[in-house]
Amino acid sequence: MDFHSLQVKTLNKLTPNSVEITFDIPDELKPEFQFKSGQYITLDMDGTRRDYSLCTSPLDGKWSIGIKSVTGGFISKFLNSDLKEGDFLKVSTPNGRFGIPSKPNEKRTILAFAAGSGITPILSIIRYTLQTEKWVNFYLFYSNKTPQDVMFYEDLKKLKAEFPENFHLHLFYTQERLEDWLFEGRLNAHKFELILNQLVDINEVDEALVCGPNEMIKEISNEIFKAGIPKQHIHFELFTTDSNPLDILPEEMDAPDDVQVTVELDGETHEVVWNRGKNLIDAMLDADVDAPYSCKGGICSSCMCKLEEGEVHLAENFVLTDSDIEEGLILACISRPKSDKIRINFDAV
């Protein structure tokens, strides 16, 4: 994972507890920072890493992220309260697989469900899709506590005004009384059923996007699938997990205490001792190998690699598809050794 020191160009306060940060990308780094809508960058602050989705379109010539301050999150609190324009941050090049294929010559319908800061990658996808697909119908169902908590409210209104026939914006509030009770409450299975009955014909839907808390993603994604949308057309991105995915792995696993693993990374070969009590990322860091990582919880793709030899225990993840796993792809942060000889290749993905 490549990091660069980037200067903060502008700060835009979105809500009392969220901010949009725009970076100044030097011309010589712009090729490295080209991105696809839906991708994220990683900030490294004194060794602690956090992922933040880009909220701009690749066509905007602008690199911005949206950050909501969370309880106990010292990085998000610092970025919202103490960061100044002109400051420098250690920023990775863009990464991630969340998004949908571009189809500018087709007429299609896209559904997007977001809650809170989950709007950030979806906003990037909305912008790019509206810019490139003149026949698209893009429905956004976005939930927040109150109108004052809506990130990018002005941006969403401008998009609605610019693309009135293509962009269908629906805002939901969990702590606000409204004339139409349909838009009160959380996005859940019951609300999804009401949306299908009143706002969308599911038979016309081609792609669906979901981004937000774990519970919402699982419930809405499941309802979309039950409504008839194929699994490969349901795309989701999780921002936080409820627990450490490695906690669900059995304590007693049929594997030696220490395994010799060969790791291919950035054109170099490393021999690493991997203890079954650790994930691969920690084993690599212990061996002074600059492992690519960010979330360390199976919710981003920074540590994706290919298992070329041997077997591993892979905990629950929120990134890999069934076909990815069949191809031998794993996430190093939620993998533990199963066989006594293992070969991993980060350069093969």
UniProtKB/TrEMBL annotation:
**What Gene3D superfamilies is this protein classified in?**
3.10.20.30, Nucleotide-binding domain of ferredoxin-NADP reductase (FNR) module, Translation factors
**Keyword set, alphabetical order:** 2Fe-2S, FAD, Flavoprotein, Iron, Iron-sulfur, Metal-binding, Oxidoreductase
2Fe-2S ferredoxin-type domain residues are: 259-349
Cofactor(s) needed, names only, are: FAD
**What InterPro entries does the database record attribute to this sequence?**
2Fe-2S_ferredoxin-like_sf, 2Fe-2S_ferredoxin-type, 2Fe2S_fd_BS, Beta-grasp_dom_sf, Cbr1-like_FAD-bd_dom, FAD-bd_FR_type, FNR_nucleotide-bd, MRET
Question: Hey, what's the signal peptide range on this chain?
Answer: none
Q: Where is the FAD-binding FR-type domain?
A: 1-101
Which CDD domains does the UniProt entry name for this protein? fer2 (cd00207), PA_degradation_oxidoreductase_like (cd06214)
Molecular function per GO: 2 iron, 2 sulfur cluster binding; flavin adenine dinucleotide binding; metal ion binding; oxidoreductase activity
Q: Name one Pfam family in it.
A: FAD_binding_6
Q: Does the keyword 4Fe-4S apply?
A: no
Q: Specify whether Metal-binding is a keyword of the entry.
A: yes
Q: What is this protein called?
A: 2Fe-2S iron-sulfur cluster binding domain-containing protein
